[in-house]
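ok here's Coenzyme PQQ synthesis protein A, seq below lol
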Amino acid sequence: MNEVIEQAEQPVRATEAPGDAVVWQTPDYTVVDTALEVTAYSLTAR
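and the structure came out like this:
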C-alpha cells in the first residue's frame, strides 16, 4: 500500500522594506457632460 505523507505548506510572504512601498496615485481626470465637451477636452489634452 502507498503511504501518503502530508506536509503543511507555509505561504510565501513577500518582505518589503518600509521605504520601498509604492504609493498609488490616481490619474487626473475631468468630468464632462456632453459629447461636445468630450471632443473639446480630447483636442486640448493632446
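fwiw Helices lie at 35-44. kinda neat tbh
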